[in-house]
Amino acid sequence: MNVLGIETSCDETGVAVYSTGTGGGEPGLRAHAVYSQIALHAEYGGVVPELASRDHVRKLLPLIRQTLAESDLAVADIDGVAYTAGPGLVGALLVGAGVARSLAWALDVPAIGVHHMEGHLLAPLMEDASTRPPFVALLVSGGHTQLVAVEAIGRYRLLGETLDDAAGEAFDKTAKMMDLPYPGGPQLAALAEQGQPGRFKFARPMTDRPGLDFSFSGLKTQVLLAWRDSDRAAQTKADIARAFEDAVVDTLAIKCERALDATGFDTLVIAGGVGANKRLRAKLQALAERRGGRASFPRPMFCTDNGAMIAFAGALRLQAGQHGDASVRVTPRWDMATLPEVA
Ligand code: ATP
Ligand code: MG
Ligand code: FE
């Protein structure tokens, strides 16, 4: 089964073809492409929803043609279509849903609306088939910071989440405060590489009390004060970036360990854009090994938004016989716990 995946929830247009291997051939990703709108939104310092929708309209069909060509498939070889149906920007989601539903209708194949965070969560399984539930998933992206107990594919129990900013949002906002170019998260992480650890020290928020929730907005304020009162030299900037990154990484690691203890699971899965962070990857890898368990990450390009994770998550559900009706519907706010289990 060849599944076309379409991601348009925010400012990346992602398209991919995933083959399930049923009906012959090896299972795996046949082709994928991502077009990022970063340059379009840079002058505004953030994503402008209406511009995002219009750019998805412009890019989606060419990207589908390009991806099909790279996968050596004709449009008639597509057996199912998966698209992000939420959460995300309503206009952006509607572009992907409209194109996906139309294509499925024309080809007379099933289509399914995929939960964007389930896409992120399952990306490590697409990369490594030996990663299977049960596991604890740390979802760390631009809009979410959640710990989820994954008992089965589609059976998700929220263990804890951020009460304010998401980890990626904290990276982006902190970078902006320190005048790093948009979008700041990856730039701040790169700057932290040159920083000296320990020169600045920030709190590990909410680790001094039990529980699995997070809060990152106070950390941002601590950085702002440190930066404001500093000499603002290049090395100082790097040292503050390093201290910020260490605080976020430590906090995430402390809560991951608690979540593993609470569930008794030994596998930790990390997904979402902040999962691309090198220091976070190293820290969580070491944590899992120390406990005799394992940590599973997608390659960095599949941590941030992409069509491959949507094709893969959709393929699992389509294979199980799940699909939606022909109406074009999106769910901008959508609780992952309401998803059906994949039988
Ligand atoms: P959501 O998935 O919650 O809807 P999103 O789709 O915008 O949000 P992703 O594409 O998963 O988020 O991830 C983008 C986020 O990841 C940004 O906040 C970005 O700063 C952050 N990010 C990307 N690379 C790194 C890195 N190396 N270190 C830290 N943060 C990073
Ligand atoms: Mg993005
Ligand atoms: Fe995302």
Question: What's the Cα radius of gyration?
Answer: 20 Å
What CATH architecture of the largest domain do you see? 2-Layer Sandwich
Order of helices and strands: EEEHHEHEHEEEHHHHEHEH
Largest sheet: spatial strand order: 3-2-1-4-5
User: What overall geometry do the principal axes of the alpha carbons give?
Assistant: globular
Main location: cytoplasm
Catalytic activity: L-threonylcarbamoyladenylate + adenosine(37) in tRNA = N(6)-L-threonylcarbamoyladenosine(37) in tRNA + AMP + H(+)
Pfam families: TsaD
Subcellular location: Cytoplasm
Written overview of the protein:
There is one protein chain. This protein has 343 residues and is of the alpha/beta class. The chain folds into two domains: 2-122 and 302-338, 2-Layer Sandwich (Nucleotidyltransferase, domain 5), CATH 3.30.420; 133-298, Nucleotidyltransferase, domain 5 (2-Layer Sandwich), CATH 3.30.420.40. It contains ten helices and ten strands. It has helices at 38-42, 49-70, 90-107, 116-127, 167-177, 184-192, 217-228, 234-263, 278-290, 308-319; strands spanning 2-7, 12-19, 28-36, 80-86, 111-115, 135-140, 145-152, 155-161, 267-271, 294-296. It has a five-stranded mixed sheet with strand order 3-2-1-4-5, with helices on both faces. Helix 9 links the parallel strand 9 and strand 10 (294-296). The chain is globular. The mean pLDDT is 97. The site of fe (iii) ion has 4 residues, from helix 4. Its main location: cytoplasm. It is an enzyme of class 2 (transferase).
